[in-house]
């Protein structure tokens, strides 16, 4: 099919997909260096005319939680710069507006948390929840895209462009000692060593390794496809127009470099603080209280012997021999759900263990 020149800008297309996930877009439209192909509601593939040597595919997803607006604005900024010819497409990519209905409603989700549903046998075809149907669409879109873009060597130099990535962009509900941090899903696929300097160069400050499977979107790409997938927390939730995008400019630069097939900025991995989840704090009874203020910052440290929580059935949870850092605390979850992650500081991957 012939392209229709100038019939749609990428930034406009993304905005229209937020207005309506089923927005009528051209089946294909020109971009500087390539073209765009809408693949599914809220999903656009970017296809370069001439891929740069070794340039690997990138999946960029935003708005899986509808109230997390900074990543949506960040992707819009990157797209507007492409529309303006400030950079040229030279690597394949899949852009995903996760949950347009929730974005328009200004809510994290409508029926249930979308970012827990990315499991192939975990969502019934007749599940009536909106997010269940959305997860199926997104899993199929990722499967189809990655079938076109085979997996990776990942053995290059720091800042190499040959490692496929899935960057699922979020913002957190609370403050954090490290406002920008990566969550590394639990998987048999280790993160290629070349990726950490890239994340440091994009302004990330910490990385949290999950200790068990959690059926998030980035875990989906890693678990089923062996892709280096990350959930990236980029500061704190704010309404449209109230985000500090300048603080995220290094992340915008990373997205642009990936899509332009050019080596991204890198920084010393030592600039990242590494943590590993030690245990999940569960709410077992209705009679459950956290031993600290609800609005405590992520990664707040608790020392040996300090009280973390009291549960009517499980009793007290106290810190053992090693200090723990509390991440994503929420006392208000339903019974049987996770009320916080308790993480310990660990050496950078590949670094010799610290003397204790
Ligand atoms: Zn989120």
Mind explaining what this structure looks like?
This protein is of the alpha/beta class and 356 residues long. The chain has two domains: 262 residues, Zn peptidases (Aminopeptidase), CATH 3.40.630.10; 62 residues, OB fold (Dihydrolipoamide Acetyltransferase, E2P), CATH 2.40.50.630. Helix content is 22%, strand content 25%. It is built from seven helices and 16 strands. The strands form two sheets. The protein has a 13-stranded mixed sheet with strand order 1-2-3-5-4-6-9-7-8-10-16-15-12, with helices on both faces. Strands 11-13-14 form a three-stranded antiparallel sheet, with no helix packed on it. Helix 1 packs antiparallel against helix 2. The longest helix has 19 residues. The chain is globular and about 60 Å long. The N terminus is likely disordered. The structure holds zinc ion. The site of zinc ion has 3 residues, from loops.
Per-chain topology:
Elements: H1 10-19, E1 29-31, E2 34-40, E3 43-48, E4 58-62, H2 70-83, E5 93-97, H3 100-105, H4 130-148, E6 165-172, E7 180-184, H5 195-201, E8 206-209, H6 217-225, E9 228-236, H7 249-260, E10 273-282, E11 288-290, E12 300-302, E13 307-311, E14 315-318, E15 324-327, E16 338-346
Parallel strand pairs: 4-5, 4-6, 6-9, 7-8, 8-10
Antiparallel strand pairs: 1-2, 2-3, 3-5, 7-9, 10-16, 11-13, 12-15, 13-14, 15-16
This protein binds zinc ion.
Short description:
The protein has seven helices and 16 strands. By secondary structure, the chain is of the alpha/beta class.
List keywords for this structure.
single chain, OB fold (Dihydrolipoamide Acetyltransferase, E2P), three-stranded antiparallel β-sheet, Aminopeptidase, about 350 residues, 16 strands, alpha/beta
């Amino acid at each position: 099919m012939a392209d229709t020149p100038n019939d749609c800008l990428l930034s406009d297309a993304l905005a229209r997909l937020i207005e309506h996930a089923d927005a009528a877009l051209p089946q294909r439209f020109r971009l500087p260096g390539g073209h765009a192909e809408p693949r599914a509601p809220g999903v656009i593939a970017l296809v370069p005319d001439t891929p740069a040597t070794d340039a690997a595919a990138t999946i960029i997803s935003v708005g899986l939680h509808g109230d997390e607006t900074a990543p949506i604005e960040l992707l819009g900024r990157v797209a507007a710069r492409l529309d303006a010819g400030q950079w040229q497409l030279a690597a394949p990519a899949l852009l995903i507006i996760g949950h347009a209905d929730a974005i328009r409603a200004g809510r994290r989700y409508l029926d249930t948390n979308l970012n827990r549903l990315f499991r192939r046998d975990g969502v019934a075809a007749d599940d009536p929840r909106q997010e269940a149907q959305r997860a199926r669409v997104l899993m199929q879109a990722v499967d189809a895209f990655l079938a076109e873009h085979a997996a990776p060597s990942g053995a290059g130099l720091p800042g190499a462009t040959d490692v496929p990535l899935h960057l699922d962009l979020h913002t957190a509900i609370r403050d954090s000692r490290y406002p920008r941090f990566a969550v590394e899903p639990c998987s048999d696929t280790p993160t290629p060593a070349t990726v950490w300097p890239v994340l440091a160069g994009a302004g990330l400050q910490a990385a949290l390794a999950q200790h068990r499977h959690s059926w998030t979107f980035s875990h989906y790409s890693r678990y089923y496809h062996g892709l280096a997938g990350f959930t990236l927390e980029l500061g704190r939730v704010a309404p449209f127009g109230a985000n500090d995008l300048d603080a995220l400019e290094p992340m915008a630069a990373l997205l642009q470099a990936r899509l332009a097939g050019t080596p991204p900025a890198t920084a010393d991995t030592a600039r990242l603080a590494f943590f590993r989840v030690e245990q999940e704090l569960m709410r077992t009874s209705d009679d459950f209280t956290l031993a600290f203020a609800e609005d405590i910052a992520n990664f707040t440290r608790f020392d040996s012997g300090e009280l973390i929580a009291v549960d009517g059935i499980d009793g007290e949870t106290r810190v053992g021999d090693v200090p723990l850092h509390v991440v994503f605390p929420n006392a208000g979850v339903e019974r049987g759900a996770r009320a916080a992650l308790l993480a310990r500081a660990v050496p950078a991957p590949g670094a010799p263990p610290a003397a204790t």
